[in-house]
Amino acid sequence: MVRRPPSRIHPVVLLTLLEATGRYDPKLRSWLEEEFELSLAQLEELARLGDYLSLTPVERVQTHLLQSKRYSEIVRLAGANAYLWLVGEVGGALLATLPRRARISRAIREAARSIRPCLADGHAGLFRWGNFVKLEVSSSPFARGRTSLFPLCGFIEGFMNQALLSYRVEGVVVEEVVCIASHPDQPVCEFVVTDSHSGKTKKGE
Q: Residue 117 maps to which CATH number?
C-alpha cells in the first residue's frame, strides 16, 4: 500500500487564524502558541517565503477554536486577512475604470484562484446554476473529517468577501449554504454569491 504524502497548506492560514484569535480571545491565542510551540514571527517569515506547512497544526488549532463561541468571527476575520496577505489591496486606478458588474466578476474570479494555496488538497471552482454563481470547494481543510451542526468554512467566506470589499463592491455577500461537515452526504462545500442590489445572485460573467 502506497502511503499518501501529508497535506500541505500555506502558512498564512495558521498565521491569520492565530492573529484573529488574538483579537477575539487573547488568552486562547496565548494558550495555542504555548501548547503547539507556535511563533507568530516565524509564521510571518514562512508566509513571506511561501514555505508550505503540514496541514496537521492547522487542524489541531481549529479543533480548539471550535470550542470558542467566537469561532465563526475568528475564521472569517482570518480569511479576510489571508486575502490581504496573498493578494493585497486593489489599485484605485483600476477600480475607476471598471463598472460595478465587472468589479464583482473580477473579485470573485480572482479570489477563487488566489485561495487555492489555503485549501491544501482541496480545489475551488466557480459554476453557474440557473441565475446563481456558486463556488464549490472539494475536500475543504476546514470541514473534512469533521461533523458539525453549522458550516465550518467561514475562512473561505471571509476570503471571498474581502475580495469584494477590496474591489469596493457593496451589497454583495458570499455565504456557505452547504458544508460537508453538516451535510456528509454532499461531495463539496457550496457557497453562493448574493447581490442585494438586484435581489438575485450574480452570474460570473
A: 3.30.980
